[in-house]
Amino acid sequence: MFTGLIEEVGTLQNIRRGQRSCVLTIGCSDVLENTRVGDSIAVNGVCLTVTGIGRGSYTADVMSETMNRSALGRLFPGAKVNLERAMPADGRFGGHIVSGHIDGTGAVQAIERDDNAVWYTIAAAPELLRYIVEKGSVAIDGISLTVAAVDESCFRVSVIPHTQQVTALRDRGVGDLVNLECDIIGKYVEKLLMQPLSGTGAKGQPKSGLTEEFLLEHGFC
Q1: DSSP at 162
Q2: What's the chain's average pLDDT?
Q3: Is the pLDDT at 199 greater than 60, yes or no?
């Protein structure tokens, strides 16, 4: 599990491509402290397993599913990447629950400066936007951000100067793809509501056990 608070901006030193996969070599320093082979580090929000550690760098394998779901396949040597180690059990939870399992990608539609902040407008598919709510949380390239506005085609976030300075978001431009992870809670709630709890409803559709009567009975009004 991650928090979406970036620890370090690393540099992609090498990308060795296979037919549908690749191996990344990432230059960094801070996240290598106490890191061992087998540990997890999120790269632009994608949870990857450390497969080798060198002097000032580490390697990670990226399988085809990850390549298809994320923007990692578009990286090139020299690209800056956001890095975060998995959260320790005794650590502070300063961001929000981030699993490192990318839901899909979005495209930077606009970047606008507003005094000391910068607004990013991110276009995304409807199947992702359904889980993005105003004042909710979203991870963009692994960065925990608050959604300021959302409509049927895009959402907006406002980024403070500190986030700009300590993440690779400053390198993103209009048209660039970014990795998106929606708030995990909404996805679980949707799945549970769709499960057949007490038989089936009309035309064989799953019948949810969540009813108005149930909510009233348990104090929701």
Answers
A1: H
A2: 90
A3: no
